[in-house]
Specification:
Blueprint (H helix, E strand, L loop, with lengths): L19 H9 L6 H15 L6 H28 L6 H29 L8 H24 L8 H15 L13 H12 L8 H14 L4 E4 L9 E4 L8 E3 L12 E4 L1 H19 L8 H13 L11 E2 L3 E6 L1 H8 L35 E8 L3 E6 L11 E6 L5 E11 L4 E11 L2 E7 L9 E6 L10 E5 L8 E6 L2 E13 L3 E8 L9
Antiparallel strand pairs: 1-4, 2-3, 2-4, 5-7, 6-7, 6-9, 7-8, 8-11, 9-10, 10-11, 12-13, 12-15, 13-14, 14-17, 15-16, 16-17
Helix pairs in contact: 1-3, 2-3, 2-4, 3-4, 4-5, 5-6, 5-7, 6-7, 9-10
Length: 528
């Protein structure tokens, strides 16, 4: 019988809501207008159902009814999580955790159904029911993996081993290409989606890029080809996995020469790479031949990023050293600008910033000029030559992939950093993030494009000085996507105004650009 990582039922059916008619009435009475309360009730009912012994046909019927309710409730929970800020807001984390628990309980229910079906023998043990159970389990595994990716959380222990076991069980039985009745997706298709997600470092992505990645995974995962390690072309690095291990695919630059290597499978991505290349060429053509060439820029950047992501993975460059210190930090360009401007919203020339430049804290009038929240403290788990790993609660200072940080150790000067990846860990979804140090304390400046619309105004920016070691030109840190080569800006600092010209883009995150510049030649157009 197939073995999966789920506790077997041990209670009598009378101890759970196991009557379909009773369950239907109860679900209709659940308060969907209060999604958090409703989700908690459904989680408890489903977990109780997973503890009782039931005939497979009855379990399948009950799970189908729960699945119908989940289709309504899970999007409500995800909306609460996405609309909030997972690293700072308890309500957003609570919604995300409930969505995970609810989806995990349904997934475990389907695993129990499959284990019951796989143990059936005799004339009435039809393969039809077994193939349906396999497809239900691996489909719910795909849904669970997508949910965990969107909420920056590591998948539960045993997930990858279960997925590998499911697919190779279906492959052995010849069921891998058999979909559910009336549907097109088979276990092989869902498994490839799960594997491609395993090749995707979603914790390094902004939400928009995660959503786009999941869209492409749904559309193009069937282009992956599963091969034995021996079929891998010599010298061609690839993502590989072992079906007997609880791990996602991992990038290998060359095949290991060990006896255990015989059990390794690899993912051939040549067809996927060709599809992404074709898609990129079409987008670039459209961008050149339409009125607004920047309309498709974000999608082009997404495709470029994923093309690199699915060819190889980021490798550690520096040794990690354990650490037990703490740092204090703030996040976001506006808060960093306030601190580096001498804790003031008024620039050295005495001019107060426009209201629209100030952080939105829900207040009006003069109260909107209140200072940002005080720095928060986080533990340093380890350090490297380029950054550190932080863990803890970051109240009031969001920690997102690509966010700017200003941090310092006790008694030391501030340093500018960028959040490279984020994980939310444990039952309380504690924040853990990898941080790259990018420079010393920056200088607060104001920036305005020379050629712009009449109602534009100076915007906050940061200036990093040039550095001989490592060799780095002076840079401006700006929000959004303002960089164009040789674009000219008015730069306002404590010494007055000058004109600068952007020369190179040295770093780009979801919300910011690090732009090298030089003194510019004043454009013929004059700002109003």
């Amino acid at each position: 019988m197939l073995k999966l990582s789920v506790a077997p039922p041990y209670l009598d059916a009378s101890l759970a809501m196991s009557d379909p008619a009773q369950l239907d009435v109860w679900l209709r009475q659940c308060p969907l207008g209060q999604p958090l309360e409703c989700a908690e009730l459904l989680r408890q009912a489903l977990e109780q159902l997973n503890r009782v012994r039931l005939p497979p046909a009855l379990r399948a019927r009950l799970l189908e009814r729960h699945q119908q309710e989940h289709k309504i409730l899970l999007p409500l929970l995800e909306r609460l999580a996405v609309n909030g800020e997972l690293s700072t807001q308890h309500r957003a984390r609570h919604a995300a955790r409930l969505a995970q628990q609810l989806m995990l309980a349904l997934h475990n229910g389907y695993k129990l159904l499959l284990m019951d079906r796989s143990g059936e023998h005799g004339l009435l043990a039809l393969d039809k029911y077994k193939t349906e159970a396999v497809c239900l389990v691996i489909r719910s595994a795909r849904q669970l993996a997508f949910l965990y990716a969107r909420t920056y959380t590591n998948l539960p222990e045993g997930f990858w081993l279960d997925c590998h076991s499911l697919f190779f069980h279906a492959l052995e039985k010849g069921w891998e290409n058999t979909p559910l009745p009336g549907q097109a997706k088979s276990p092989a298709h869902y498994y490839r989606q799960i594997l491609l997600l395993g090749m995707t470092a979603s914790n390094r992505m902004a939400p928009a890029l995660i959503d786009y990645s999941l869209l492409l995974i749904r559309k193009h995962a069937n282009l992956l080809d599963l091969l034995h390690l021996g079929q891998l072309s010599s010298g061609h690095g690839s993502f590989a996995f072992q079906p007997g291990m609880d791990h996602p695919p991992r990038y290998i630059s060359e095949a290991p020469d060990t006896p255990s290597a015989q059990g390794i499978w690899v993912l051939d991505t040549h067809a996927l790479e060709a599809e992404l290349k074709s898609k990129l060429q079409k987008l670039q053509y459209l961008a050149r031949h339409q009125g607004n060439p920047f309309a498709l820029e974000e999608e082009i950047q997404h495709v470029l990023y994923l093309s690199m992501e699915w060819q190889s993975s980021i490798q550690r460059r520096h040794e990690r050293l354990p650490c037990s210190e703490e740092v204090e930090l703030v996040s976001s360009l506006s808060t960093i600008w306030f601190i580096t401007n001498g804790a003031a919203w008024t620039f050295p020339n005495g001019e107060a910033l426009p209201q629209e430049l100030l952080p939105d804290n829900g207040m009006r009038g003069k109260l909107q000029r209140m200072p940002p929240p005080l720095p928060t403290s986080m533990k340093v788990v380890n350090t490297s030559a380029s950054g550190m790993l932080l863990r803890g609660e970051s109240q009031h200072h969001p920690l997102r992939a690509g966010e700017l940080l200003l941090l310092r150790h006790s008694g030391k000067p501030w340093q500018l950093a960028v959040v490279r990846w984020v994980n939310l860990c444990g039952e309380q979804m504690e924040t853990e993030c990898g941080v790259e140090l990018v420079g010393p304390q920056p200088e607060a400046v104001l920036l305005l494009p020379v050629l712009t619309h009449p109602n534009d105004h100076y915007r906050m920016a940061l200036r990093l000085p040039a550095s001989p070691r490592p060799a780095r030109q002076a840079q401006l840190v700006i929000s959004g996507r303002q960089y164009q080569r040789q674009r000219e800006f008015y730069l306002l600092d404590g010494h007055g105004r000058q004109t600068v010209s952007s020369t190179a883009l040295s770093l780009q995150t979801a919300g910011y650009q690090f732009v090298e510049y030089r003194p510019g030649v004043l454009a013929a157009a004059t700002h109003h």
